[in-house]
C-alpha cells in the first residue's frame, strides 16, 4: 500500500514537472519568435514632479503571445536572461526608447525616457558600443535617456559593473538605481557610485501608511539623496495618501497607477495633451 502510494505520488510529481518544463520550452520558443519578429510592445508610464508636471516616462515591455496570451515581464524577462536573449531584447528596448523620444519631440514634449537595463545586457561586451552607435545615429542627446539598473547587476563582477555605470554617466546618460531598498547592499552602492536617480521600490510605498519603520527609513534615504543632489523617484503610488506623504517627505518624482498606468505611446501623448 505504502509503496504504491509512494509510486503514484512520484508519478504525479514527475508529470507536473514535465508539463512545466514543456510549458517553459514552448514559452521560450514563442519569446524567441516575438523578439525576432519584433512583435513585443513597449508602453510608457509617466513620472511627475512636485508640481504634477510630467518629468519623464519609464519604458515597460509587453508581450501578448498568440499562444500564451499576455505574459508578465516578471516571467519573460528572466526567461530571456536565462536563455541568452538579454542582449537582443535589451536592444529592442533601446530602439523603442529612441523612437519614443523622437515621437515625444515631434509633439513638443522634451521628456526623458527611462529604460530598464538587465544585468546581462549591461555586462555584455558590446553593450556600450552598440548603445553609443544607436544614440549617435538618432542624433539625440544621451541625457534624454535614463538607464535603470538593479543591484543584481553587481552580483557578478562588482568592479566592472561600477566602471560601466561610471562610463555611461560620463557619456551623459542619466543613471538610475532601480528597486532601491529591496536588496542587501543598496546603501553601499549609493556610497560607492554616483547615481543621478534612486528609484524607491514599491514595497516601501505600499507599507508607508501602516509602517512607521518604513517611514523613518524612507525619510532618511530621501534626505540623504536630497543632500547629495540625487533625484528620487517613488514607484508604485496607488493612493492620494501615499502621494501626500511622499510629497511631504521631499521625493522629487512620482510614478504609479494613481498617476497613470503604463500605456502605448499614442495614449501616453493623449494624456500629456489632456494634462496641459
Ligand atoms: P520595474 O522596472 O521596477 O518596473 C515597475 C513595475 O511596477 C512595472 O511592472 C509597472 O507596471 C509596475 N507598476 C507601476 N506602478 C504601479 C502601481 O502603482 N502599482 C503596482 N502594483 N505596480 C505598478 P511590469 O511592467 O510588470 O514590469 C515588471 C518588471 O519587469 C520591471 O520592474 C522590470 O524589472 C522588468 N521589465 C519591464 N520591462 C522591461 C524591459 O523592457 N527591459 C528589462 N530589462 N526589464 C523590463
Ligand atoms: Mg524600472
Ligand atoms: Mg522598479
Ligand atoms: Mg521591479
From TrEMBL:
<feature type="domain" description="EAL">
    <location>
        <begin position="24"/>
        <end position="276"/>
    </location>
</feature>
<protein>
    <submittedName>
        <fullName>EAL domain-containing protein</fullName>
    </submittedName>
</protein>
Amino acid at each position: 500500500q505504502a509503496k504504491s502510494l509512494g509510486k503514484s505520488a512520484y508519478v504525479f510529481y514527475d508529470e507536473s514537472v514535465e508539463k512545466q518544463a514543456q510549458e517553459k520550452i514552448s514559452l521560450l520558443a514563442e519569446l524567441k519568435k516575438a523578439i525576432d519578429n519584433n512583435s513585443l510592445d513597449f508602453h510608457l508610464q509617466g513620472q511627475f514632479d512636485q508640481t504634477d508636471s510630467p518629468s519623464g516616462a519609464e519604458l515597460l515591455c509587453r508581450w501578448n503571445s498568440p499562444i500564451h496570451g499576455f505574459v508578465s515581464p516578471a516571467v519573460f524577462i528572466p526567461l530571456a536572461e536565462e536563455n541568452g536573449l538579454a542582449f537582443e531584447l535589451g536592444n529592442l528596448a533601446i530602439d523603442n526608447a529612441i523612437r519614443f523620444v523622437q515621437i515625444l519631440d515631434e509633439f513638443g514634449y522634451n521628456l526623458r525616457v527611462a529604460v530598464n537595463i538587465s544585468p546581462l545586457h549591461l555586462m555584455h561586451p558590446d553593450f556600450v558600443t552598440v548603445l553609443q552607435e544607436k544614440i549617435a545615429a538618432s542624433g539625440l542627446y544621451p541625457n534624454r535617456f535614463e538607464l535603470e539598473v538593479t543591484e543584481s547587476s553587481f552580483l557578478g563582477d562588482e568592479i566592472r559593473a561600477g566602471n560601466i555605470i561610471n562610463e555611461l554617466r560620463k557619456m551623459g546618460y542619466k543613471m538610475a538605481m532601480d528597486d532601491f531598498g529591496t536588496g542587501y547592499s543598496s546603501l553601499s552602492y549609493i556610497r560607492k557610485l554616483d547615481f543621478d536617480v534612486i528609484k524607491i521600490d514599491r514595497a516601501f510605498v505600499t507599507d508607508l501608511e501602516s509602517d512607521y519603520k518604513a517611514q523613518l527609513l524612507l525619510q532618511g534615504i530621501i534626505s540623504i539623496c536630497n543632500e547629495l543632489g540625487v533625484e528620487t523617484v517613488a514607484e508604485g503610488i496607488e493612493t492620494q495618501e501615499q502621494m501626500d506623504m511622499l510629497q511631504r517627505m521631499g521625493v522629487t518624482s512620482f510614478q504609479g497607477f494613481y498617476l497613470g498606468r503604463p500605456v502605448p505611446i499614442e495614449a501616453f501623448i493623449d494624456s500629456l495633451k489632456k494634462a496641459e
